[in-house]
Structure formats: C-alpha cells, structure tokens
Design goal:
This protein is mainly α and 470 residues long. The protein is built from 20 helices and no strands.
Amino acid sequence: MSDLTDVTASLETLKRCAPGDIHAYLPAMLRQYRFVPRADRRRIGEDFARWANEVVPPAPVLAGYAAFTQAMDRFMDEDLRPALQIAMQSHSVFAEHDERDGIGLSSMLIGATYRTFGNFDLALKALWQAYELLKSSGRHPVFLAATANSLANIDLELGHLDEARVMFETTCAECQRADDFYFHVYGLHGLARVHMRQEHPADAEAILQQALELAEKHGHPLHIANSLTELASFHSERGSLDEAEVLSTRALEIRERHLLMAGAVTNCLRLADIRCRQSRWDEALPMLNRALAIAKDIDVKPKMAQAHEQLSRLYEQTNDDERSLYHYKQFHALREEIEREDSARKLADAKTVFEAEQARKENAIIKAQKAEIEVKNRELQDTIDELTRAKIGRRAKALTLALAIVLFIFQDAILGTALRLLASNNYFVLLTVKMAIIFSLSPINRGIERYLLKRVTRKRTAASLPVPVT
C-alpha cells in the first residue's frame, strides 16, 4: 500500500474511533503523512480540517490535530508564516483541553519555525516544552527525534558542541527506536559536523559514510544527494579534491535526475570551486555558467550572486579584467537586492513572531479568564442550590406543620379508628399509636423536601433544553 492509501485509511479510522482511542491510530498517520505527495498532502489536510470542524457532536481534540496536519503541510512547503499561525491555533486548542501530546507536537512545529526565523530564544522555549512532553509520552519518537534535531542545530550554531552532540545522538537513538531513516540521516549529518569541529575527522568520515549507506538502503534521492554532498565537503576541507569531485558529480546527477535543482546549483558551484583550486579554468567555466543558468531559472538570488562572484574570481585569474568586472558588478547588485529583501523578510518575520506571541498571550489570558468565570459560576450555582434547598426546607416544614395541625384536629377520630382496627383499649397501645404519628412527621418532612427538589430540577432541565424549530 502507498503512503497516501495508508494515511487515508488511518484518517477514516480516526473519524470513527472513540476519543480514548485517538492515540492508537494518530502516530502512524502523522508519521506517514510526511511522505504523501505535496498536492495530496494539502488536500488531505484541508478535508480533515473541514470534517473536524463540522462533525456533530464536536470533536475539538481531533480539530486540533487536523489544524496541526495543515500547519505541518505548510511548514514542509516552507510557507512559514501560515504554518506558525495555524500551529499556534492548534496549540491553543490542545492547551484548552489539556491534550499533552498535541501541545508537544504543536510546540515542536512552532519551535522549528522560530528557529528558521532566527529567533533562537523563542525557538528554545517552544522546543524544550515539546521535548519534555513528547519524551514523557513516548508515542511519537519520530517527532521527538525532529525536536532533538532542531535543538542540536541551534546548539551547533551557538557553538555549544557538547550539547549539540548529545542532542544529535538522541535524534539518532529515537530514529532507531522508531525505525525511521528520515531524521536519522539528518542526525548523522549533524553529528559528523560536530566531530569535524571537534577535530575528530576519522569519526566524522565514518558517520557520513553511515548516513550515505542508510540513505541508499532506503533509496531516498534527497538524502542520498545530501549525504554525497556532505561527504564531498568533508573531503574538500581535508584536501582530497579528486574524491570530493567524484562525490559532487554523483550528487549532481541524482539532483538533476530528480529535479532537485536548488541542490544542483550547490553541486555545480562546488565542482567549479574544486576545479579552480586545481587551476582547471576551462573545466570550471562551463560548470559556473551552468550553475548561473539553473539559479536564474529557479530564481534563487543568493545562488545567482555566488555564481557571479566565482565567475568574477575565475576571470580575474585568467586575466580577463572586463568580464571579471562585469560579474563583480552583477554580484554586488544582487547582494544589495538580497540584503533589501532580507531586511523586508526579517521585518515580516518579526511581525509574524510578534503577532503569534501576542495571540499566545491573549489565549493565555482568555483561558485564565474562562477558568475564573467557571469557578465563579460554580460558586454561584452552589449558592443558588443552597438557597433553593433552604427555601424548599422552609416550604416542606410549613407543609409538615399544616399536616401536623390536621392530625391534631382529627386525632380522636384517628385514634378511635386505630383502636377499633387493633381491637384493644390498652393504654400502651394508644401511646404507641400517638408516638407513631409523632415520629412519622420527620420522614414525611424529608419526603416532601425530596419531592419539591425533584420538581425544581425537572423545571431547570426543561428550561435548558433547546426549543424545537417547527
């Protein structure tokens, strides 16, 4: 069965299962949802959200998970602003219903988005919450691995190498437990970078080779090309240019075959750099022109700028000053344009982060207010119930008193009837009948209270029912 078929079947089971059985089916669905083709993934997420928001009776927890699948889809498409907003909405739903797995999953996505925006403080706060919740749950080892991978990369960027190594090792361990290769490959790449920066090249090479073998075992083109590129970078830094060229060429062929064009530009630029370092100018030039053409075609300006910069240096080395100057000017023009766009993007990202945090704070305030209102409502209801019971008690006592007066007035007739029925004029029999009448007043009073209380309860229930529309 394909991933699409499995995910569709899992969703149908989720829609029919009892609320307590959600976690029996959800982890497998979310795990396979990552591999559904892009167009189908978007459609499935929207259909699931539509059903969850329209189903009767309401299923708020499933609606939260439906929103999470939509956020996950946006994040995978690098549509980060909608991803953050939807993830925040799902987080609020989960927090309101104390759905700890959902809080952990949405926090993972929120933290990963903040990390992409470069806001490490907010990213760490969300990611650590996700890590603790997902670790204690144990139901989502794949997403725990993703969380650990995000934390590790932040530590690596901040230069906290020991902490990064521990988290990359956690990523690999969780992936092995879940038999998931996807984040395992990323974890191995990160672990190799840590070993490189700690001057352990032999360990780094062995880990990169392990990542490549794992990617090839599962036949995943993206991971195979990434692993080849990581190995090529390793050999290039170590001065093994021939080995780096072979690996980069293999990676380029895979990326072009599977239309992974952004990565193909990177391989072209690295191959050109290797050939320039070997003074193979005639072989480097076509590769740079190829990189520039692909970068223009997919409109990736940073790669275009990088290609122009390398072309400028190549022409400088070959004493072609006119072309060197031309590409140098193109490089600077593109760099200025990229800086303007980066500034605008960072401002938009900051605005998105601010709005998301404001929404989170507002949701927290609303939740606190709602909890306070619920407490006040319970206190008010308790007061009303006490007053109702006191009122009913007074009314019951009044009715019991009235009954006692009636019995007092007609006591001679009642006693005469009782003595005739018992066929006795014994004084003690007469005393027993009188005591029975007296002691019966207390249970009669309680019975009247219960009856009046049931009447009040029935009236409240009837008032709370919706009026049928005719």
